[in-house]
């Protein structure tokens, strides 16, 4: 039986203090969650609910967990990636009233799943996932809990993709909000969050610059667009690889080079995968690459770069730098892999995950979705649901208000005009 | 009874030659339509069909009309805006086998509608619209034709908006493809086409520059995004006005200032409306503006800038320059309106409409939609329909092929991975 | 003996009215010249001076000529390029008190030089040049005038380059201000002016778009940087060719591809030369180009693209469009040359030259340089002189003031700190 | 008497290994220095020379020190900023044959100057400075050494500024190369190096994002331009403050807001100083700032933000986060200062200094300047000298060659054309 993190770590006092400081910093820059806290504290919308969470446990997520607890929920949380947990934040979160945290960094697979089970044993009525591991575990191993679950939220592109596949197979047994698919999430978190934090993490892990570099971005979805845009904004020459012709064309019309990976491999200085798929960079690509290239992944799972194949090709492997593993080829070329091919904005030693403000938006949507499930969960059938537009819009309005940004509203004449069709030229 | 343009103009011979040269230039840069022409010439998909068109009659549209005729259709065409017709192209088009053109520049309202009636009297089986005037006229005045109409296509945001309103009212009596809403149309035509051509038209009408100018973009839909992005790319300082909070936030996160028009009015050097709505710039805004500002519209109708109100405020009005009307206020300020508030990329003296290549994409979608209606029209119910994804994708592939851009395809393992959900971390 | 333009053209009345309207528009957007006009009108600094000018005679230059005349000078002006004169402006200028204009569009070489001689026969005491033709003609054919010439100003990179060569040869007999080399001129006129106006002129001459195009920019000096930056800002993929390694590296670090022209020729969709040198694009390059490419020049002279060689390669030549000459190769490829290889922002049918505001800055510097020559000309030796920093700074301050832009000034402590060196870490 | 770092630190073995790994990584990405190493190893240009260095002692600088030693010099080095030394690199460098390193992190003032004296006691014949502390110390305290000093190099804007002031006072007693002023240094190091590394350091110290933030950049010199450009490339809204009107105008024409700091203070979310001056942000500005703002300095000295004044205004001060000191105002506003107002790209806990590649360029220029001093030092008089153009150009060519970037060269006809001036229009 897994115990909460506080029971397991050395010097929990110091960790708690360090974690609290991190949370305080995040809270300062999360005006949406702060605004919702005022509302939830008064309304206690989550009284009697148990929220099970499997997310990257660091300061920003902690503010979401805390927010749900402040609103009356019993919260049990664990990590969704063994390398992304900040132990100090986990301990600080474990000390928040109403929250139990099981997340611990660098645990082995067994301990990782044991922690997830510990969360499930709280018998959650609502699940909040980042990669759908919790949903999957409940469906596979705890089907008896499903009846009492109101619904859940899923944060990532990849998770939503897998949930939709599960739903198509008729296997998804409770309603899930596809938080990833909201405008608020996709446009800000994916584009700005993944883009900026991936590049900053790579720069600060390697001490290399972007200017004049050829950066190959694999995939031109929202994450890929963000990475490409921000890399271009640092004066990199961007090459995009894609499998979908509209996206390929969109990248081409943006002014980027679009190439098959086979050709891009020989041109790139830095490779960043964002596809959500596997085997995006494989043996034939490694063989074409120049000495000294960087390989990083910004997609959810660590399967985009085929590290097994790279290991097989290499005559030597060593840590070139904290967070950088060098694979030396027989011909002397060194291919440098960051963060073991895991999420580069989360898993390098200096990585901090998504920027605070974009997570504030994302978690604001999560929070109002949990509120929606509590208030109207019974109206949603089992399956994947888009976040209702009014909730997404509500969060945008809270954010604009917090930023002091005013905008126009339609006059009556304009409302009427937009609804009419009888006008001539 | 309206006659074809050729019967009505002076020196049709010279106009035809001039129009043909324009069409030849367009054809050189429309590889998608050229690729489809090869297919249609062989297959004759439109034999026995009559296509009625109401579009901006200039060289690029002429290539679409010609393409449909080459594929076997009888084509009757008129303009969708009295200022956007190029008479020479209209004459050249009228000479194409299978095409009759009624479009003429600067006709009065009566002649404009008479030309539309002339098109309708061809008894079209398919309609192709840019602003839904043809659909509206048929529904209002020629309901007896509806039974024999297979369906139609609508090109613009505004037209689709009005069609959806009509559909919601249960008034739309045949299937219409919302060509405007395809990724191919919205992303390329609206963003790149409207953006680039509006700015180039303003620059070449005024001889003014963008660097250091404050450009107020009203509306942050696809057109507004394009105008903002391209203006920023010319070193303008962009201000966005919006009524939808997610769009307002998106503009803010892009780095633009977001302001209510009331405040923006006092800051702007150039104002460009892209909302598709009316009364976007009105008296209170005119009163706040600086001397010498430019006012231009890139939305479909000329109702976004309230020119009647401006006229009332003005103590003098005069043509400051071809395509620029100056309104002088009592306090000496001069507000310069381009193209009478009509589409600035179509209606100034030097304007050429959307760039050839983006219209090639847009018209490629139109052409395959017409083909779809002929092949499977009966499968579509009356109402607005999204363009089937496979058609849009087909056009993207033709374009990439023509540009020599290669892209990747999914391996079997990848296809399978994308469809699965049982994978762990 | 050449007569003023007014004596030579049809319907001078109408031309004068049209030219005046153009000048009025320019004046509205030239706040620096307007500010100086107030000063010059009061001070009459140019009384007793004769200013000879050889410049592109269009509305903006007319404001400079008028400004000098308002300040008391007798002004005689002709064109510096047979294709860039606007006859209506020339006539309107000729009607300004104190100004005689000889400039006429599309005159032959003989008439062009006769007009220049007519200017020289006014016995200028100050010369204002755009390409140093006036300086050269005086030195070669009217050496007797040199003694009474106080000095002159040269506007262009190319002109200054040639003046420096002349100076190095000990042949330059009076002081010349290298207006081109001031920060105000190089950074704004070259970068923003040439960049924006060249691209807008190409777009509006061809109706083609920039998004996704490969644009080859030959030369990465100030003009080349402007063209590259603005093309990139319209989503073109920019390739730079250079002969100087630091500039080549600068372009590379900006994120552009840098290639020898031999390779760039095969990749480009549009080629824009900005080198100030000759034979930048020659036979071997034409042979490597794709069908449908555009060739344009933004450098001073029409020698950058070797049109003779292109003519020899071509099996057919025809006007594909106003301002576009198509050269058809034996293999069917069509290479489209804009404006006969002359300045593309001046010499296409729709071209308007540099934007008004940037010329305002450039001409503001010209005007204060002429004032400087009158006030202190005897202090300058024969040869090329940089514009004194204080004059350039004066113009910047006038401009900022006109734009309503405030900036900081150094405190005494800061002044002292900047001048000291005894401070520790 | 100060001993080398190795004698002073704990566990030098482990530090040496860690330092070597860092140097190896840097070397992999410093192709210019690697190319020069081959040359110097063969030629031994520095035999019999003693090079005294005071620079930021981290991996990249270590490569320069090593390169000079490989070329035959005796090298003695210390830090130029108590917070920028990496002890492990200092130890690894101390182990390089021919190098003695005295640099140690976080020493007090006394130890800092003692280390500088230790370097001077090696009796350098050449000095390499980053902030001119070594030059100043020698002139003030060791004038007897000056006769045997061939010359020196200075890396920074600020150092060169102070050297010029010293030179103007007639106090500079040996020749100094103003490495900072070369195109290679200013354009790449300042623009790309300072820009990218400052932003990445701020992002990774705070976990905040740039999108939608208002970033106030104080100073629009090369560093300020880099910071502004890169911030804009991350979708920040940039505000520039300046004291020089041409620079202010340049920023305005780039599309940025230009404001006096007094107004900017109320608008900014992040403030980055790059002026090289003192008291850029002072009490009146702190009082106008919003809660939660970030304050960072990217100029050489820590005097740009007046921290004494801030301390006086604050009712509380605490470490909000590693590298972030919060100053709490009486009204509850928290102003967050990064890295104690020292160089933010060097002095935060995660900071790594300039990117490797830009330092490679900068140090390549340093290395060839030292070679120039040895070869032709006697030809240079005492005073500040620009780096000879041929040296700067040599380094650019080495770099382009290493990057595989080819460029054109002038033909004989072109050379001749550029030198001639007799050509007509």
Can you characterise this structure?
Four copies of one chain form a homotetramer. With 425 residues, the first copy, chain A, is α/β, with parallel strands linked by helices. Chain A has two domains: 5-185 and 354-403, Rossmann fold (3-Layer(aba) Sandwich); 192-347, NAD(P)-binding Rossmann-like Domain (Rossmann fold), CATH 3.40.50.720. Chain A contains 18 helices and 15 strands. In chain A, the strands form two sheets. In chain A, strands 9-8-7-10-11-14-13-12 form an eight-stranded mixed beta sheet, sandwiched between helices. Chain A has a seven-stranded parallel beta sheet with strand order 3-2-1-4-5-6-15, sandwiched between helices. In chain A, strand 4 (126-129), helix 7 and strand 5 form a beta-alpha-beta unit. In chain A, helix 9 (183-206) runs antiparallel to helix 16. The longest helix of chain A is centred in the middle third of the chain and has 24 residues, at 183-206. The radius of gyration of chain A is 22 Å and the shape is globular. The termini of chain A are far apart. The mean pLDDT of chain A is 94. Chain A binds chain D through residues 21-22, 24-26, 28-29, 59-60, 188, 192-193, 196-197, 199-201, 203-204, 206-212, 230, 232-235, 292, 319-321, 324, 334, 350, 352-353, 355-358, 403, and chain D through 21-22, 24-26, 28-29, 59-60, 188, 192-193, 196-197, 199-201, 203-204, 206-212, 230, 232-235, 292, 319-321, 324, 334, 350, 352-353, 355-358, 403.
